Each structure stands twice: as structure tokens, then as C-alpha cells.
């Protein structure tokens, strides 16, 4: 939370209408509520966020979000990524010192994970970014799935590399060394985010189609927090049905 050093942590949910696989996804009804509302309500349970907002370019999302009393920041429709959308939204949040970028399609996200990311960023003024990762068994088929992003870290937990390829390559078995599946939630120091969006897409970023590689290629420090939060995202209507089933069981 805010303190005498001026730390002010804001959670932002970027939301756009035009998904190629699932147009209108943020407003898709799950158990009678828009998807984005489920995420918002999870975030409201956090204790380390000083403010929360939805950043969108679409009046339909704005209207629906305001109906459940969310703060909405309208942004340009021309942003290539959610990160760029969040950077513009910061213009309406001059007090924000740190930002947590919360994916608007993870309705079961653990509030404790968001709080942990916020706390890690606030505790280390030298840290540029923080993110999270789930340990996988090296034998899990997901290790070879290019849609599952893997990350390897230094001994202190800082990210060394992210890839769609199996990472690391186990030429030798190493007891206790998991594969880490990257979870797409990020926290940033404000000044770093404002600089990050001015950099052009980097070579490795373009090769792997992974925006976080731009940060590493420019020398940024990214702390990776291991988590047991394996909450699924929603990329298709079929996945939305699965989330509805999980909510009914909870």
C-alpha cells in the first residue's frame, strides 16, 4: 500500500474488443457476469493495490464496466499490445509509482499472487519488472507446446530467457530442477514501463513473438516469482464454458 516513500501501486486490466479468436471476449457472460467483471472482483480482494482500473478503447466495454462500478480509462484503438495501452492509461494516474498488468481473461486469478507481485516491486527499488511462473514436470507434454511459454532464471530468481521452445534442454537429468511455465502477469516500475514502450521491438522478441524479451535484450531486471496459481485463461468460447463449470464447483 502507499507509504511515506510515495509508493502507489495500481492494478490495470487492459481490455479490447477485437480478439481474432474471440471477438467481444471481455463481455462474454460467464455464470451471468461479463468475463472482465469476474477478474475485476478478484482484484478487488487484493490488499496491496492502492487503485484499480480497466483500460480499454471500446465504448461497449466502458459501459459494461461502469455498470459494475469499475474505474475505466479510455485509450487509443491503435495500440499493438496491452502494455502500450497501459502506458497510455498512466497519463490518468499521475500518482502511480508501480503498475500490475493483470490479464482481463483470467477470472480465477489468485489475489494473493497479485499482492505478492506488488510487494516484490515495492520492496526493491532497483527492480524493473516482476512476473510469475508455474513449475512443470519436465515430462509434461506442455514443455514441448509452443503456445506454452517457458522461462529459466538465475539462482536469485531473475529471468535469464523466455522461449516457446523446451527450456532448458535436459542433456543431463538434474534432480529438483523443474521447467517453469511463464504466467502472463507483469508488474513494472513506472519509469521503466514508460521507457520500455519507447523501445522498438527487439530481434529476439520478433523471433519468438514474446514482448518480455525486449526488456531482457535491453538489460532490464525481471524477477520471476514461482507460484502454484495455475488459473486458466479464456481464449475461446469453449474455455469459457470450462471456467463456468469450475465456478459452479467452487
From TrEMBL:
Its main location: cytoplasm. Its EC number is 2.7.7.38. SUPFAM superfamilies: Nucleotide-diphospho-sugar transferases. One of its GO terms (molecular function) is nucleotidyltransferase activity. Pathway: Nucleotide-sugar biosynthesis; CMP-3-deoxy-D-manno-octulosonate biosynthesis; CMP-3-deoxy-D-manno-octulosonate from 3-deoxy-D-manno-octulosonate and CTP: step 1/1. InterPro entries: Cytidylyl_trans, KdsB, Nucleotide-diphossugar_trans. Keywords: Cytoplasm, Lipopolysaccharide biosynthesis, Nucleotidyltransferase, Transferase. The keyword Nucleotidyltransferase applies. It is found in: Cytoplasm. Gene3D superfamilies: Spore Coat Polysaccharide Biosynthesis Protein SpsA, Chain A (3.90.550.10). It is an enzyme of class 2 (transferase). It catalyses: 3-deoxy-alpha-D-manno-oct-2-ulosonate + CTP = CMP-3-deoxy-beta-D-manno-octulosonate + diphosphate. The keyword Ribonucleoprotein does not apply. Belongs to the KdsB family. HAMAP family: KdsB (MF_00057). Activates KDO (a required 8-carbon sugar) for incorporation into bacterial lipopolysaccharide in Gram-negative bacteria. This is 3-deoxy-manno-octulosonate cytidylyltransferase. The gene is kdsB.
Amino acid at each position: 500500500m502507499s507509504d511515506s516513500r510515495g509508493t502507489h501501486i495500481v492494478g490495470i486490466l487492459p481490455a479490447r474488443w477485437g480478439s481474432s479468436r474471440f471477438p467481444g471476449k471481455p463481455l462474454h457472460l460467464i455464470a451471468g457476469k461479463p468475463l472482465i467483471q469476474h477478474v475485476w472482483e478478484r482484484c478487488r480482494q487484493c490488499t496491496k493495490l492502492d487503485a484499480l482500473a480497466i483500460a480499454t478503447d471500446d465504448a461497449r466495454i466502458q459501459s459494461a464496466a461502469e455498470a459494475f462500478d469499475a474505474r475505466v480509462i479510455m485509450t487509443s484503438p491503435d495500440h499493438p499490445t496491452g502494455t502500450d495501452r497501459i502506458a497510455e492509461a498512466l497519463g490518468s494516474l499521475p500518482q502511480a509509482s508501480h503498475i500490475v498488468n493483470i490479464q482481463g481473461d483470467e477470472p480465477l486469478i489468485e489475489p494473493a499472487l497479485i499482492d505478492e507481485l506488488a510487494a516484490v516491486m515495492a520492496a526493491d527499488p532497483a527492480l524493473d519488472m516482476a512476473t510469475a511462473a508455474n513449475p512443470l514436470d519436465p515430462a509434461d507434454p506442455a514443455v514441448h507446446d509452443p503456445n506454452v511459454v517457458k522461462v529459466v532464471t538465475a539462482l536469485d530468481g531473475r529471468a535469464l530467457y523466455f522461449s516457446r521452445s523446451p527450456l532448458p534442454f535436459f542433456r543431463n537429468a538434474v534432480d529438483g530442477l523443474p521447467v517453469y511455465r511463464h504466467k502472463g502477469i507483469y508488474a513494472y516500475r513506472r519509469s521503466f514501463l514508460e521507457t520500455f514502450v519507447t523501445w522498438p521491438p527487439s530481434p529476439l522478441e520478433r523471433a519468438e513473438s514474446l514482448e518480455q524479451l525486449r526488456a531482457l535484450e535491453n538489460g532490464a531486471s525481471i524477477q520471476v516469482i514461482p507460484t502454484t496459481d495455475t488459473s486458466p485463461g479464456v481464449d475461446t468460447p469453449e474455455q469459457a464454458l470450462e471456467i463456468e463449470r469450475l465456478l459452479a464447483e467452487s
